């Protein structure tokens, strides 16, 4: 199995090219690939397949040639990954599978079609609009933290803190209300930052992602945080700088209500992996 390793602000992925959809991925195989000691190591797997060749994306084939079949590190499926889609776009263009389009390269996801505008150092993705759906709360340790629920195609809970983020213990998944989030939730913890040039608001963020644990970054989480920050500032358009442990992402809402997520996307290595050598990997049916 050929693979490429990439990351977006430290949120790292195993990229598996499979244009014709011949791999029969399983949760066990994905988890084994993402194992940081016995596999390649990653927060998730980006399965590169043509939309027409995957049952979850066949309906988007007329709008987007390529489907980002995204799997979390524990082998569960996810609807969207904002950092992953930038790495996915970088992979397509770098390997000659797609050309960068001035109006954005269309990529199908389980949350719909998004569009990536690519340059040498960063990629901006026009995302589907985040929807603030109400309030809820997260529990970490003995602390109950009120938050805002945001649908970015995948579920998020944004919890603002008054104190420093480094006091949080995210080695254990935060508790949440399963009645609000029946499929689990990505939980973002934020504190306001000092003003930075080029942004209307500045926020620091840590995140615990369902299926992956605490990660260095979460692109769709940054989008959720940006949506909450703009709403709380009373702004119908603007830019939010979101600093995560792995770097900086920028969320922009334009006057015509387009939402953009921008940041770096880097490919760092390529190679081969023998699925049969991965402990616990189930590969029956893979071609």
UniProtKB/TrEMBL annotation:
Subcellular location: Cytoplasm
Record GO cellular component, one term: cytosol
Site feature (Could be important to modulate the pK values of the two catalytic cysteine residues) residues: 156, 209
Pathway this chain belongs to: Amino-acid biosynthesis; L-lysine biosynthesis via DAP pathway; DL-2,6-diaminopimelate from LL-2,6-diaminopimelate: step 1/1
Main location: cytoplasm
A molecular function GO annotation: diaminopimelate epimerase activity
Residues reported in the UniProt entry to bind substrate: 11, 72, 82-83, 154, 186, 209-210, 219-220
Catalyses which reaction(s): (2S,6S)-2,6-diaminopimelate = meso-2,6-diaminopimelate
Active site, per annotation: 81, 81 (proton donor), 218 (proton acceptor)
PANTHER family associated with the record: DIAMINOPIMELATE EPIMERASE, DIAMINOPIMELATE EPIMERASE, CHLOROPLASTIC
Family that this chain belongs to: Belongs to the diaminopimelate epimerase family.
Protein name: Diaminopimelate epimerase
Organism: Mangrovihabitans endophyticus
Gene: dapF
């Amino acid at each position: 199995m050929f693979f490429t390793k990439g990351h977006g602000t430290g949120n790292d992925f195993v990229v598996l090219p499979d244009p014709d959809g011949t791999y029969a991925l399983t949760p066990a195989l994905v988890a084994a690939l993402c194992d940081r000691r016995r596999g390649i190591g990653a927060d998730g797997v980006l399965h590169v397949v043509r939309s027409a060749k995957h049952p979850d994306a066949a309906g988007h084939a007329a709008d987007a040639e390529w489907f980002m079949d995204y799997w979390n590190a524990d082998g569960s499926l996810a609807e969207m990954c904002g950092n992953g889609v930038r790495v996915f776009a970088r992979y397509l263009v770098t390997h000659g599978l797609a050309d960068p389009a001035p109006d954005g390269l269309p990529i199908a996801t389980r949350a719909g079609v998004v569009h990536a505008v690519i340059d040498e150092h960063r990629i901006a993705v026009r995302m589907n609009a985040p929807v603030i759906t109400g309030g809820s709360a997260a529990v970490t340790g003995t602390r109950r933290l009120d938050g805002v629920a945001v649908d970015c195609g995948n579920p998020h809970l944004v919890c603002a803190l008054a104190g420093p983020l480094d006091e949080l213990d995210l080695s254990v998944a935060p508790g949440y209300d399963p009645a609000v989030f029946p499929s689990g939730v990505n939980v973002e913890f934020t504190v306001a930052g000092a003003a930075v040039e080029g942004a209307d608001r500045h926020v620091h963020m840590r995140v615990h992602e369902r299926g992956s644990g605490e990660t260095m970054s979460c692109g769709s989480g940054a989008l959720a945080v940006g949506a909450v920050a703009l709403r709380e500032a009373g702004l119908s358009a603007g830019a939010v700088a979101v600093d995560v442990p792995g770097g900086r992402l920028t969320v922009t809402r334009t006057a015509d209500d387009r939402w953009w997520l921008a940041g770096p996307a880097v490919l760092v290595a390529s190679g081969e992996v023998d699925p049969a050598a991965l402990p616990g990997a189930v590969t029956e049916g893979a071609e």
